[in-house]
Specification:
The complex is a heterotrimer. Chain A is mainly alpha-helical. Chain A has 21 helices and 2 strands. Chain A has a two-stranded antiparallel ribbon. Helices cover about 70% and strands about 0% of the residues of chain C. Classes of the chains: A mainly alpha, B mainly alpha, C mainly alpha.
């Protein structure tokens, strides 16, 4: 049965696609191969999500070495959902990427772009499915190294400094993570996450565990752009090629958030993190700071992509706020917002890329008058913006509502108030786009009015439709998130 | 440095031995210290040595850049192919036990091929890095 | 549990902080990468040092040997070293490209150039 190998094939198919593309040396063949690999990964993650819903966690022993001695890939409701998000975004971005990337990157290196994208996809999926702490580090670095190069491909020379800055901070983050894992390994003698969770209780001296948790929180916090460790994010997303921005904004930070959830809830357990250590309040304060400061920073940006990037930092704050509650409803809201914000931000960056192609840039001077020159794109962008605010009927509402309900349920009124107040700031930055696009005339030298070509707009509109669908029919995502939260918290203690 | 007779003679004598030593390290890797990483670096070092003494153009003639790029990809494919072979033969991914009639020979065979993949990729990557960095400096000097 | 009992950890912390300080305090992009390399080295020490047992030999089963060192940390760190090399190579490649695009590798001059663009 091939389906029993899905956990590893999910990673290996994009991983093999990458060298195949390099050997084929053709941009078009590279595109076809990456599309096929992403479609295969998507199909496999759907099958895995269905299988985990029906029969619980799936364990796969690499090389038939039984865990905990060998590397185990362990797929449950939580990481199947994350893998599904990642592969779905890849599948949406690739049809879009063909035109967008050829417009932004030199033709002779096009195949290398697709090879890197597949490498990045393999890394992100690997982080999601692996059950081994060190293997996770390796995949983290595979995806990060590919990401640095993808960002550096941007047309503006600032893409280079942005990639360099991300390389420095990302490497520090990964190194801190692996230091924390090292302390856990020395204390427990195992690298298998499930086995580690079982052995933590027997460790006599708790101090290495506290230090390990601190290292992992700081390291993963850098990767997921937890305020105030977000300095790399705005430039990286703003100057990367549009397709790359969309793919990364929807997946990279989300996968890092998943790692944090896995370590907190599955390895350490709720009691150890939120009762024995004061991580709940720390995380809550940082998240609330992110909501307000990053949203305020988004308002004053002069560039649409930078605005979206700062908004990402704020939206990640909602996710970590859900984690900081340390409860099943809070975690459910966090997972739901992880998915909903992933598709929302993916859709918005795709639309921003379409604007960049037609209007010749994403500065607000180029965006002016967009409501007339690109009416559909502008309208879709407003819909996505409504989801960032959390207007009922959009994906952002469902998960924010779950978050507010969880906060009130736990008696944290101030958190609920912070979520609502910060949504007003989101109104301000989305309004900035509305005002610019609908109430100002197009710039005198508007080069090429009209919608972007169909192979770019169809993926962008499809993802925008998904945002609305996930808002109108919120239950599938919320139910899957509840199962994911259960799987994260239910691991053996 | 092309005029330096001592370097040229010593290089001509040493480079073949360096390559042979690399092959020894490579194929010794499955039952002793050694393996693809070390062998790949030694092979790459031999070519880089050649490039430093006889010039970049000569090195590029001996080991063309297109070959180097293919090597980077080929090694990964060999490694992943061994893993897939495990699945095809009825085991798990990277399952060496099923690669031969008994598990010990399977381990031997699996490690041999995986190390071959690692060796190809590592030497390819080292050479690619060398070509890219040296070539870029040269292009800049020759430029306007 | 004396100072000397934790000697390798003190060394680890010292290397870690040294590397981090260089990354933060130096404005030259190449020097930052050197600091990053030193920073990563601390992890190698953290893993490898406890894997060594005094009097232990290589983990190959043989007659007369009963104490073996743990090979797993070495294998892990071999991977981490390769990752470090790849990061360093990519970082230096980026520095080369930055030098070509901006004509400098000093952080403050880069910021100035970016500010002028706005």
């Amino acid at each position: 049965m091939l389906s029993q190998h899905f956990p590893i094939l999910l990673v290996v198919v994009p991983l093999i696609a990458s060298p195949v593309i390099v050997m084929a040396r053709s941009g078009f063949l590279g595109w076809v191969a990456s599309l096929a690999a992403s479609a295969a990964a998507f199909a496999m993650s759907v099958a895995l999500l269905v299988a985990t819903t029906e029969s619980g966690a799936i364990s796969y022993a690499i090389g038939s070495w039984p865990p905990p001695w060998g590397i185990e890939y362990r797929v449950d409701a939580a990481n199947a959902l994350v893998a599904l998000l990642v592969s779905a975004i890849a599948l949406v971005v690739l049809p879009y990427a063909r035109r967008s990337v050829s417009a932004e990157i030199g033709q002779e290196r096009l195949y290398l772009f697709y090879a890197l994208l597949m490498l990045c996809l393999a890394g992100l999926l690997g982080i999601a499915v692996t059950g081994d702490a060190f293997n996770l580090f390796v995949f983290l670095e595979i995806s990060s190294l590919a990401t640095y190069v993808l960002i550096a491909l941007g047309r503006n020379r600032r893409a280079l400094t942005a990639a360099y800055q991300y390389l420095i901070l990302g490497t520090i983050g990964a190194t801190l993570y692996v230091t924390g894992v090292g302390l856990l390994y020395l204390a427990t003698g195992t690298l298998n996450l499930a086995d580690m969770a079982a052995r933590l209780a027997d460790v006599p001296d708790k101090r290495p565990l506290v230090a390990g948790l601190a290292f992992i929180t700081a390291g993963v916090g850098l990767k997921l752009a937890l305020f105030p460790l977000h300095a790399w994010l705005p430039n990286a997303y703003a100057y990367a090629p549009s397709a790359v921005s969309a793919f990364l904004a929807a997946t990279a930070t989300k996968v890092a958030v998943y790692v944090l959830m896995r370590v907190y809830f599955s390895v350490y357990g709720v009691d150890a993190v939120f009762r024995d250590m004061p991580l709940g309040p720390v995380l809550a304060v940082l998240s609330v700071a992110a909501l307000f400061i990053a949203s305020a920073a988004a308002i004053v940006q002069k560039d649409l992509k930078r605005l979206l990037a700062y908004s990402s930092v704020a939206q990640i704050g909602y996710i970590t706020l859900g984690i900081s509650l340390g409860s099943a409803p809070g975690l459910t809201a966090a997972v739901a917002h992880l998915v909903n914000h992933g598709i929302t931000k993916g859709a918005l960056f795709l639309l921003a890329g379409a604007i960049a192609l037609r209007a010749g840039g994403t500065g607000f001077d180029r965006v002016a008058g967009l409501g007339r020159t690109m009416p559909l794109t502008a309208f879709a962008f407003v819909l996505g913006g409504l989801s960032l605010i959390g207007v009922p009927g959009t994906a952002g509402f469902a998960s924010k509502w779950a978050l507010v309900a969880a906060a009130i349920g736990a008696g944290h009124w101030w958190i609920a108030a912070a979520v609502l107040l910060s949504s007003l700031l989101a109104v301000a930055y989305v309004w900035k786009f509305v005002e610019c696009a609908y109430f100002r005339g197009p710039p005198g030298d508007a080069p090429d009015p009209g919608e972007a070509p169909a192979d770019m707009t169809i993926p962008a509109f499809a993802l925008t439709a998904a945002v609305i669908a996930a808002g109108l029919f919120a239950w599938p995502v919320l139910e899957a998130s509840a199962r994911a939260a259960e799987a994260l918290m239910g691991a053996p203690r | 440095m092309r005029m330096d007779i001592i370097l040229r003679v010593v290089g001509k004598i040493l480079i073949p031995y360096a390559v042979v030593f690399a092959l020894y390290v490579q194929f010794h890797g499955d039952f002793g210290p050694g393996g693809g990483f070390q062998a790949g670096v030694v092979i790459a070092a031999a070519v880089i040595f050649y490039g430093i003494i006889f010039g970049l153009a000569a090195a590029r003639r001996a080991v063309p850049e297109s070959l180097v790029e293919s090597m980077v990809a080929l090694g990964v494919l060999v490694f992943a192919g061994v893993g897939v072979a495990g699945i095809v033969l009825g085991g798990n991914y990277l399952d060496y036990f099923v690669l031969a009639h008994d598990s010990v020979h399977g381990q031997h065979r699996g490690i041999l091929w995986v190390e071959a993949g690692v060796g190809i990729t590592v030497s390819g990557v080292m050479l690619k890095v060398f070509y890219l960095f040296t070539g870029r400096a040269r292009d800049l000097e020759d430029g306007p | 549990m004396s100072f000397f009992g934790h000697f390798s950890y003190w060394a680890t912390v010292f290397i870690l902080m040294t590397g981090l300080y260089i990354v933060i305090a130096r404005g030259n992009l190449v020097k930052k990468l050197v600091g990053l390399g030193i920073f990563q080295t601390s992890v190698y020490l953290l893993y490898v040092a406890p894997g060594k047992l005094i009097g232990g030999t290589a983990p190959i089963v043989g007659e007369g040997f009963t104490v073996y060192s743990n090979p797993l940390p070495h294998v892990l760190i071999l991977t981490a070293i390769v990752v470090g090399v790849a990061t360093l190579a990519l970082g230096l490649a980026l520095v080369v490209r930055i030098r070509e695009a901006y004509g400098t590798v000093e952080e403050d001059e880069l910021l100035e150039a970016d500010a002028k663009d706005d």
